[in-house]
Write a structure and sequence with these properties.
The protein is mainly alpha-helical and 101 residues long. The protein has two domains: 61 residues, Helix Hairpins, CATH 1.10.287; 39 residues, Ribosomal Protein S14/S29 (30s Ribosomal Protein S14, Chain N, Irregular), CATH 4.10.830. A two-stranded antiparallel sheet has the order 1-2. The protein is elongated, with a radius of gyration of 20 Å. The chain starts with a helix and ends in an 11-residue tail after the last helix. The mean pLDDT is 92. This is Small ribosomal subunit protein uS14. GO terms for molecular function: rRNA binding; structural constituent of ribosome. It holds the Pfam family Ribosomal_S14.
Length: 101
């Protein structure tokens, strides 16, 4: 089980990303627009830098929804390999059977 503080920090980041997504996209569009003047692009990049760092989507990290484990994460199932094995062994994932011989 992951530390509760790390899971809560990740949730806080998700909220910030959602809150600033529209503003960040607009500023990025201006900063990357080749037709805009150099001054406008520079001002947009400065405003982008003033936004909170945790509002960037690249700072998000996938975590298992059951345990909060950040490594060995299966995107399709949104769980870690350990929980996948445990749930598969218990027959709680439809269509999955853990083989043993």
């Amino acid at each position: 089980m992951a530390k509760k503080s790390m899971v809560e920090r990740e949730l806080k980041r998700e909220k910030l990303v959602a809150q600033y997504a529209e503003k960040r996209a607009a500023l990025k569009a201006v900063a990357n627009d080749k037709n805009a003047s150099v001054e406008e692009r520079f001002k947009a990049s400065l405003k982008l830098a003033e936004l909170p760092r945790n509002s960037s989507a690249t700072r998000l990290h996938n975590r298992c929804q059951l345990t909060g484990r950040p490594h060995a994460y299966y995107r399709k199932l949104k769980i870690s390999r350990i929980m996948l094995r445990e749930l598969g062994s218990n027959g709680e994932i439809p269509g999955m059977v853990k083989s043993s011989w």
